[in-house]
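User: I want to check something. If I give you two sequences, will you return the structure for each one separately, not as a complex?

Assistant: Yes, each is folded on its own. Here is the first sequence with its structure:
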Amino acid sequence: MDTLAAYSQLVEQHQLPTMRRGGYSTHTETLSEPDAVWAALAAQQPTQGWLQFQSRQRPFHDGLPQPEADWGQLLAAEAVTGEGHSLSLAGDGAGGFRLTRYTHSASGDWLCDELSQFAHDPRTGSLRYRRYWRLDDAQGYVQERACFIGFD
Protein backbone atom coordinates (compact mmCIF):
# COMPACT_ATOMS: atom_id res chain seq x y z
CA MET A 1 0.00 0.00 0.00
CA ASP A 2 1.43 3.42 -0.87
CA THR A 3 1.81 6.21 1.69
CA LEU A 4 -1.14 8.32 0.51
CA ALA A 5 -3.51 5.35 0.52
CA ALA A 6 -2.44 4.38 4.05
CA TYR A 7 -2.72 7.97 5.26
CA SER A 8 -6.19 8.41 3.74
CA GLN A 9 -7.42 5.50 5.86
CA LEU A 10 -6.38 7.43 9.00
CA VAL A 11 -7.65 10.88 8.02
CA GLU A 12 -11.24 10.55 9.13
CA GLN A 13 -10.55 8.38 12.16
CA HIS A 14 -7.98 10.81 13.60
CA GLN A 15 -9.23 14.13 12.11
CA LEU A 16 -6.06 14.69 10.12
CA PRO A 17 -5.71 17.19 7.26
CA THR A 18 -6.03 15.86 3.72
CA MET A 19 -2.67 14.94 2.21
CA ARG A 20 -1.86 15.01 -1.52
CA ARG A 21 1.14 15.07 -3.83
CA GLY A 22 2.74 18.41 -4.54
CA GLY A 23 5.86 20.49 -4.64
CA TYR A 24 7.11 24.04 -4.92
CA SER A 25 9.68 26.19 -6.64
CA THR A 26 11.43 29.20 -5.12
CA HIS A 27 12.83 32.55 -6.13
CA THR A 28 14.95 34.37 -3.53
CA GLU A 29 16.21 37.96 -3.44
CA THR A 30 18.97 38.95 -1.01
CA LEU A 31 18.57 42.53 0.19
CA SER A 32 20.86 44.66 2.33
CA GLU A 33 19.20 48.09 2.56
CA PRO A 34 16.01 48.59 4.66
CA ASP A 35 14.37 50.70 1.93
CA ALA A 36 15.09 47.97 -0.62
CA VAL A 37 13.42 45.38 1.65
CA TRP A 38 10.12 47.26 1.74
CA ALA A 39 10.25 48.03 -1.99
CA ALA A 40 10.92 44.37 -2.87
CA LEU A 41 8.05 43.18 -0.68
CA ALA A 42 5.67 45.80 -2.12
CA ALA A 43 6.67 44.84 -5.68
CA GLN A 44 5.28 41.34 -5.06
CA GLN A 45 1.83 42.92 -4.42
CA PRO A 46 0.87 40.83 -1.38
CA THR A 47 -2.84 40.73 -0.57
CA GLN A 48 -2.78 39.20 2.94
CA GLY A 49 -0.19 38.49 5.55
CA TRP A 50 1.57 39.70 8.64
CA LEU A 51 4.46 42.11 9.23
CA GLN A 52 6.88 42.19 12.17
CA PHE A 53 8.51 45.57 12.75
CA GLN A 54 10.80 46.56 15.62
CA SER A 55 7.86 48.08 17.51
CA ARG A 56 4.77 46.62 15.91
CA GLN A 57 3.32 43.36 14.67
CA ARG A 58 0.54 43.88 12.16
CA PRO A 59 -1.67 41.62 10.05
CA PHE A 60 -3.09 42.89 6.77
CA HIS A 61 -6.04 41.61 4.75
CA ASP A 62 -6.53 43.99 1.81
CA GLY A 63 -3.08 44.70 0.43
CA LEU A 64 0.11 45.94 2.00
CA PRO A 65 -0.42 48.88 4.39
CA GLN A 66 1.79 51.96 4.45
CA PRO A 67 4.26 51.64 7.34
CA GLU A 68 4.31 54.33 10.00
CA ALA A 69 7.59 55.87 11.16
CA ASP A 70 7.16 54.78 14.79
CA TRP A 71 6.99 51.08 13.79
CA GLY A 72 10.76 50.96 13.20
CA GLN A 73 12.49 48.66 10.74
CA LEU A 74 10.70 45.72 9.11
CA LEU A 75 12.21 42.52 10.56
CA ALA A 76 10.09 39.68 9.14
CA ALA A 77 6.93 38.98 7.17
CA GLU A 78 4.82 36.25 5.64
CA ALA A 79 2.29 37.00 2.94
CA VAL A 80 0.42 35.65 -0.04
CA THR A 81 -0.11 37.27 -3.44
CA GLY A 82 -3.27 37.37 -5.51
CA GLU A 83 -1.74 34.65 -7.71
CA GLY A 84 -1.28 32.38 -4.67
CA HIS A 85 2.49 32.74 -4.28
CA SER A 86 3.66 32.52 -0.67
CA LEU A 87 6.18 35.13 0.45
CA SER A 88 8.62 34.89 3.34
CA LEU A 89 10.90 37.68 4.55
CA ALA A 90 13.57 36.83 7.12
CA GLY A 91 16.99 37.99 8.23
CA ASP A 92 19.94 36.32 6.52
CA GLY A 93 22.19 36.24 9.61
CA ALA A 94 24.62 38.77 8.12
CA GLY A 95 22.62 41.98 8.56
CA GLY A 96 20.60 41.62 5.38
CA PHE A 97 17.34 39.96 4.43
CA ARG A 98 16.04 37.25 2.14
CA LEU A 99 12.69 37.61 0.42
CA THR A 100 11.60 34.24 -0.93
CA ARG A 101 8.62 33.58 -3.19
CA TYR A 102 7.26 30.02 -3.13
CA THR A 103 5.20 28.82 -6.08
CA HIS A 104 3.06 25.76 -5.40
CA SER A 105 2.89 22.90 -7.88
CA ALA A 106 0.07 20.35 -7.79
CA SER A 107 2.50 17.70 -8.95
CA GLY A 108 5.76 16.61 -7.42
CA ASP A 109 7.48 13.97 -5.35
CA TRP A 110 6.58 15.45 -2.00
CA LEU A 111 3.38 15.33 0.02
CA CYS A 112 1.53 18.44 1.15
CA ASP A 113 -1.32 19.28 3.49
CA GLU A 114 -2.96 22.45 4.77
CA LEU A 115 -3.72 23.50 8.32
CA SER A 116 -4.89 26.50 10.32
CA GLN A 117 -3.19 27.91 13.40
CA PHE A 118 -4.52 30.40 15.93
CA ALA A 119 -3.41 33.99 15.43
CA HIS A 120 -2.17 36.09 18.34
CA ASP A 121 -5.27 38.26 17.98
CA PRO A 122 -8.39 36.13 17.25
CA ARG A 123 -9.96 39.05 15.34
CA THR A 124 -7.29 38.50 12.68
CA GLY A 125 -8.61 35.05 11.81
CA SER A 126 -6.63 31.84 11.77
CA LEU A 127 -3.37 31.68 9.85
CA ARG A 128 -3.43 29.09 7.06
CA TYR A 129 -0.31 27.22 6.00
CA ARG A 130 0.53 24.62 3.37
CA ARG A 131 3.13 22.16 4.67
CA TYR A 132 5.45 20.19 2.41
CA TRP A 133 6.76 16.78 3.47
CA ARG A 134 9.72 15.01 1.87
CA LEU A 135 10.68 11.37 2.20
CA ASP A 136 13.90 10.84 4.14
CA ASP A 137 15.48 7.38 3.93
CA ALA A 138 16.26 7.29 7.66
CA GLN A 139 13.31 9.21 9.17
CA GLY A 140 10.36 8.67 6.85
CA TYR A 141 8.38 11.78 5.86
CA VAL A 142 9.70 14.97 7.47
CA GLN A 143 8.34 18.48 7.13
CA GLU A 144 10.49 20.47 4.72
CA ARG A 145 8.61 23.77 4.57
CA ALA A 146 5.46 25.54 5.73
CA CYS A 147 4.18 28.36 3.50
CA PHE A 148 1.65 30.98 4.55
CA ILE A 149 -1.39 30.85 2.25
CA GLY A 150 -3.76 33.36 3.88
CA PHE A 151 -6.18 33.90 6.73
CA ASP A 152 -9.39 31.98 7.41
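And separately, the second sequence with its own structure:
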Amino acid sequence: MRYLAEKPDLTGDGMEIGPPHSALGGPCRRCWVYPRLEDDIHCRHCREILYRGRGLSTSSRHTLLVWGYVSECPRELFRERARTNKHRALDVFVPDENHFLIALDRYELKPWIQELVVYYGHDLRGLLQMFPTMGGGGNMDMGDILARAVHHEANFPMDRMRVRYYSSPQQLVRPHLREREGLLTFELSEFLNLLEMTEMVRTLLRPDEQKELYELRTIRDVKEQQFYWGRFLGRLEQRTRDMLTSWGIRQWPPNRIELIFELFDHVSFIQER
Protein backbone atom coordinates (compact mmCIF):
# COMPACT_ATOMS: atom_id res chain seq x y z
CA MET A 1 0.00 0.00 0.00
CA ARG A 2 2.86 2.39 0.77
CA TYR A 3 4.55 1.51 -2.50
CA LEU A 4 1.35 2.22 -4.43
CA ALA A 5 0.94 5.52 -2.59
CA GLU A 6 4.40 6.53 -3.80
CA LYS A 7 3.95 5.10 -7.31
CA PRO A 8 0.21 4.97 -8.04
CA ASP A 9 0.65 4.60 -11.81
CA LEU A 10 2.75 1.47 -12.14
CA THR A 11 1.59 0.97 -15.72
CA GLY A 12 2.90 4.38 -16.76
CA ASP A 13 6.55 3.91 -15.85
CA GLY A 14 7.58 2.54 -19.24
CA MET A 15 7.88 -1.11 -18.23
CA GLU A 16 6.82 -3.55 -20.88
CA ILE A 17 4.64 -6.59 -20.27
CA GLY A 18 6.66 -9.72 -19.49
CA PRO A 19 6.96 -12.69 -21.85
CA PRO A 20 4.36 -15.46 -21.79
CA HIS A 21 4.77 -18.22 -19.24
CA SER A 22 6.78 -21.22 -20.43
CA ALA A 23 8.96 -24.01 -19.11
CA LEU A 24 12.08 -21.90 -19.67
CA GLY A 25 10.90 -18.55 -18.43
CA GLY A 26 8.01 -16.17 -18.18
CA PRO A 27 6.87 -13.05 -16.39
CA CYS A 28 7.33 -12.17 -12.71
CA ARG A 29 6.36 -15.09 -10.50
CA ARG A 30 4.46 -12.80 -8.17
CA CYS A 31 2.39 -10.41 -10.31
CA TRP A 32 2.57 -12.45 -13.55
CA VAL A 33 2.58 -9.19 -15.52
CA TYR A 34 6.01 -7.54 -15.69
CA PRO A 35 9.32 -9.07 -16.86
CA ARG A 36 11.64 -10.68 -14.36
CA LEU A 37 14.93 -9.12 -13.36
CA GLU A 38 18.01 -10.88 -14.68
CA ASP A 39 18.99 -12.16 -11.24
CA ASP A 40 15.53 -12.77 -9.81
CA ILE A 41 12.22 -14.48 -10.50
CA HIS A 42 10.41 -11.21 -9.65
CA CYS A 43 10.05 -7.89 -11.44
CA ARG A 44 11.56 -4.79 -9.88
CA HIS A 45 8.23 -3.65 -8.47
CA CYS A 46 7.53 -6.96 -6.74
CA ARG A 47 11.08 -7.29 -5.45
CA GLU A 48 10.82 -3.88 -3.82
CA ILE A 49 7.44 -4.75 -2.26
CA LEU A 50 8.73 -8.08 -0.94
CA TYR A 51 11.77 -6.33 0.54
CA ARG A 52 9.64 -3.74 2.30
CA GLY A 53 7.27 -6.44 3.55
CA ARG A 54 9.91 -8.39 5.44
CA GLY A 55 8.96 -8.78 9.09
CA LEU A 56 5.27 -7.95 8.54
CA SER A 57 3.99 -11.54 8.56
CA THR A 58 3.12 -11.42 12.28
CA SER A 59 1.29 -8.09 12.13
CA SER A 60 -0.54 -9.13 8.95
CA ARG A 61 -2.19 -11.99 10.84
CA HIS A 62 -3.83 -9.36 13.07
CA THR A 63 -4.83 -7.06 10.24
CA LEU A 64 -8.25 -6.45 8.72
CA LEU A 65 -8.60 -4.88 5.28
CA VAL A 66 -11.51 -2.63 4.35
CA TRP A 67 -12.18 -1.92 0.67
CA GLY A 68 -14.49 1.05 0.44
CA TYR A 69 -16.64 2.05 -2.51
CA VAL A 70 -18.32 5.24 -1.34
CA SER A 71 -20.09 8.37 -2.51
CA GLU A 72 -17.27 10.49 -1.05
CA CYS A 73 -13.88 9.26 0.09
CA PRO A 74 -13.51 10.09 3.83
CA ARG A 75 -10.18 11.88 3.34
CA GLU A 76 -10.90 14.31 6.19
CA LEU A 77 -11.15 11.41 8.64
CA PHE A 78 -7.79 10.08 7.46
CA ARG A 79 -6.16 13.51 7.70
CA GLU A 80 -7.65 14.34 11.10
CA ARG A 81 -6.44 11.14 12.71
CA ALA A 82 -2.98 11.71 11.27
CA ARG A 83 -2.86 15.29 12.63
CA THR A 84 -3.80 14.20 16.15
CA ASN A 85 -1.46 11.17 16.02
CA LYS A 86 -4.43 8.90 16.67
CA HIS A 87 -4.75 7.39 13.22
CA ARG A 88 -6.30 3.97 13.76
CA ALA A 89 -5.19 2.78 10.34
CA LEU A 90 -1.96 0.88 9.81
CA ASP A 91 -2.02 2.31 6.29
CA VAL A 92 -4.39 3.81 3.74
CA PHE A 93 -4.41 3.84 -0.06
CA VAL A 94 -6.81 6.15 -1.89
CA PRO A 95 -6.81 5.45 -5.66
CA ASP A 96 -9.63 7.91 -6.48
CA GLU A 97 -12.48 9.93 -4.96
CA ASN A 98 -14.78 6.93 -4.55
CA HIS A 99 -12.45 4.17 -3.41
CA PHE A 100 -10.07 3.50 -0.55
CA LEU A 101 -8.22 0.56 0.92
CA ILE A 102 -7.43 0.71 4.61
CA ALA A 103 -5.52 -1.73 6.81
CA LEU A 104 -6.65 -1.82 10.44
CA ASP A 105 -5.55 -3.68 13.49
CA ARG A 106 -8.45 -6.10 13.88
CA TYR A 107 -9.39 -4.69 17.32
CA GLU A 108 -9.70 -1.17 15.89
CA LEU A 109 -12.69 -2.02 13.69
CA LYS A 110 -15.42 -0.84 16.06
CA PRO A 111 -13.69 2.47 17.02
CA TRP A 112 -12.96 3.15 13.35
CA ILE A 113 -16.60 2.63 12.34
CA GLN A 114 -17.73 4.85 15.22
CA GLU A 115 -15.44 7.63 14.00
CA LEU A 116 -16.74 7.20 10.47
CA VAL A 117 -20.29 7.67 11.75
CA VAL A 118 -19.30 10.71 13.86
CA TYR A 119 -17.53 12.46 10.99
CA TYR A 120 -19.90 11.61 8.15
CA GLY A 121 -23.18 10.44 9.70
CA HIS A 122 -25.81 9.67 7.08
CA ASP A 123 -24.04 11.62 4.33
CA LEU A 124 -21.76 8.75 3.37
CA ARG A 125 -23.23 6.03 1.14
CA GLY A 126 -21.78 2.97 -0.50
CA LEU A 127 -20.28 -0.37 0.47
CA LEU A 128 -17.53 -1.36 2.91
CA GLN A 129 -16.12 -4.86 2.35
CA MET A 130 -14.14 -6.19 5.29
CA PHE A 131 -11.90 -9.25 5.24
CA PRO A 132 -8.67 -10.50 6.88
CA THR A 133 -5.41 -10.86 5.03
CA MET A 134 -4.10 -14.17 3.73
CA GLY A 135 -0.67 -15.67 3.14
CA GLY A 136 0.74 -16.60 -0.23
CA GLY A 137 0.50 -20.02 -1.78
CA GLY A 138 -2.24 -21.94 -3.50
CA ASN A 139 -4.02 -20.63 -6.56
CA MET A 140 -4.98 -17.25 -5.09
CA ASP A 141 -3.26 -14.33 -3.40
CA MET A 142 -4.35 -10.98 -2.01
CA GLY A 143 -4.41 -9.49 -5.52
CA ASP A 144 -7.05 -12.03 -6.51
CA ILE A 145 -9.05 -11.33 -3.35
CA LEU A 146 -8.97 -7.56 -3.90
CA ALA A 147 -10.07 -8.08 -7.50
CA ARG A 148 -13.06 -10.06 -6.19
CA ALA A 149 -13.93 -7.22 -3.82
CA VAL A 150 -13.83 -4.72 -6.70
CA HIS A 151 -16.09 -7.03 -8.71
CA HIS A 152 -18.68 -7.35 -5.91
CA GLU A 153 -19.00 -3.59 -5.31
CA ALA A 154 -21.25 -3.21 -8.35
CA ASN A 155 -23.95 -5.43 -6.81
CA PHE A 156 -25.54 -2.66 -4.71
CA PRO A 157 -27.00 0.78 -5.41
CA MET A 158 -25.33 3.67 -3.65
CA ASP A 159 -28.44 4.60 -1.64
CA ARG A 160 -27.15 3.85 1.88
CA MET A 161 -24.06 2.61 3.68
CA ARG A 162 -23.75 -1.16 3.72
CA VAL A 163 -21.17 -3.51 5.19
CA ARG A 164 -20.10 -6.88 3.85
CA TYR A 165 -18.16 -8.85 6.46
CA TYR A 166 -16.09 -11.87 5.40
CA SER A 167 -14.55 -13.91 8.23
CA SER A 168 -12.00 -15.33 5.77
CA PRO A 169 -10.74 -13.93 2.45
CA GLN A 170 -11.71 -17.10 0.57
CA GLN A 171 -15.37 -16.25 1.19
CA LEU A 172 -15.10 -13.52 -1.47
CA VAL A 173 -14.86 -16.29 -4.06
CA ARG A 174 -18.34 -17.65 -3.25
CA PRO A 175 -20.12 -14.95 -1.26
CA HIS A 176 -23.58 -16.31 -2.09
CA LEU A 177 -23.07 -19.16 0.40
CA ARG A 178 -22.54 -16.69 3.25
CA GLU A 179 -25.27 -14.38 1.98
CA ARG A 180 -27.77 -17.24 1.98
CA GLU A 181 -27.04 -17.85 5.66
CA GLY A 182 -27.58 -14.18 6.54
CA LEU A 183 -23.95 -13.68 7.58
CA LEU A 184 -22.69 -11.29 4.92
CA THR A 185 -24.47 -8.00 4.22
CA PHE A 186 -25.67 -5.51 6.85
CA GLU A 187 -26.51 -1.86 7.14
CA LEU A 188 -23.74 0.05 8.89
CA SER A 189 -25.77 0.75 12.05
CA GLU A 190 -26.81 -2.91 12.26
CA PHE A 191 -23.22 -4.10 11.96
CA LEU A 192 -22.04 -1.63 14.61
CA ASN A 193 -24.78 -2.92 16.91
CA LEU A 194 -23.56 -6.49 16.34
CA LEU A 195 -20.03 -5.46 17.34
CA GLU A 196 -21.35 -3.86 20.53
CA MET A 197 -23.34 -7.00 21.39
CA THR A 198 -20.27 -9.14 20.75
CA GLU A 199 -18.28 -6.91 23.06
CA MET A 200 -20.85 -7.44 25.81
CA VAL A 201 -20.88 -11.24 25.33
CA ARG A 202 -17.10 -11.43 25.47
CA THR A 203 -16.96 -9.24 28.58
CA LEU A 204 -19.80 -10.64 30.69
CA LEU A 205 -19.59 -14.37 29.89
CA ARG A 206 -16.72 -16.47 31.21
CA PRO A 207 -14.87 -18.67 28.68
CA ASP A 208 -16.76 -21.80 29.76
CA GLU A 209 -20.08 -19.94 29.46
CA GLN A 210 -19.11 -18.69 26.00
CA LYS A 211 -18.33 -22.27 24.95
CA GLU A 212 -21.68 -23.49 26.26
CA LEU A 213 -23.56 -20.71 24.46
CA TYR A 214 -21.78 -21.63 21.23
CA GLU A 215 -22.71 -25.30 21.62
CA LEU A 216 -26.36 -24.52 22.38
CA ARG A 217 -26.85 -23.24 18.84
CA THR A 218 -26.70 -26.81 17.48
CA ILE A 219 -29.59 -28.24 19.55
CA ARG A 220 -32.61 -28.85 17.33
CA ASP A 221 -34.98 -30.79 19.62
CA VAL A 222 -37.35 -28.28 21.26
CA LYS A 223 -37.65 -30.03 24.63
CA GLU A 224 -33.92 -30.67 24.85
CA GLN A 225 -33.21 -27.09 23.88
CA GLN A 226 -35.58 -25.78 26.55
CA PHE A 227 -33.88 -27.92 29.21
CA TYR A 228 -30.32 -26.89 28.34
CA TRP A 229 -31.19 -23.24 27.86
CA GLY A 230 -32.86 -23.14 31.27
CA ARG A 231 -29.86 -24.78 32.91
CA PHE A 232 -27.48 -22.43 31.09
CA LEU A 233 -29.36 -19.25 32.05
CA GLY A 234 -29.70 -20.43 35.65
CA ARG A 235 -25.92 -20.48 36.11
CA LEU A 236 -25.37 -16.95 34.83
CA GLU A 237 -25.09 -13.77 36.86
CA GLN A 238 -28.32 -11.79 37.01
CA ARG A 239 -27.12 -8.93 34.78
CA THR A 240 -25.82 -11.36 32.16
CA ARG A 241 -29.08 -13.30 32.22
CA ASP A 242 -31.08 -10.09 31.88
CA MET A 243 -28.93 -8.99 28.94
CA LEU A 244 -29.39 -12.22 26.99
CA THR A 245 -33.11 -12.36 27.79
CA SER A 246 -33.65 -8.76 26.61
CA TRP A 247 -31.94 -9.63 23.32
CA GLY A 248 -34.20 -12.64 22.85
CA ILE A 249 -31.08 -14.66 22.12
CA ARG A 250 -32.89 -17.96 22.60
CA GLN A 251 -34.98 -17.20 19.51
CA TRP A 252 -31.95 -16.31 17.40
CA PRO A 253 -31.18 -18.56 14.43
CA PRO A 254 -27.97 -20.57 14.91
CA ASN A 255 -26.20 -18.52 12.24
CA ARG A 256 -26.68 -15.34 14.26
CA ILE A 257 -24.87 -16.83 17.24
CA GLU A 258 -22.19 -18.13 14.85
CA LEU A 259 -21.63 -14.58 13.62
CA ILE A 260 -21.25 -13.22 17.14
CA PHE A 261 -18.41 -15.65 17.77
CA GLU A 262 -16.76 -14.79 14.45
CA LEU A 263 -16.75 -11.14 15.53
CA PHE A 264 -14.82 -12.06 18.70
CA ASP A 265 -11.69 -11.41 16.62
CA HIS A 266 -12.58 -7.71 16.44
CA VAL A 267 -13.64 -6.73 19.96
CA SER A 268 -11.79 -6.49 23.24
CA PHE A 269 -13.02 -6.62 26.81
CA ILE A 270 -14.92 -3.64 28.20
CA GLN A 271 -12.95 -2.13 31.05
CA GLU A 272 -15.34 -1.75 33.96
CA ARG A 273 -14.92 1.27 36.17
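Because they were folded independently, the notes below concern the second chain alone. The first strand starts at residue 63 and ends at 70. The chain has three domains: 1-54, 58-180, 201-266.
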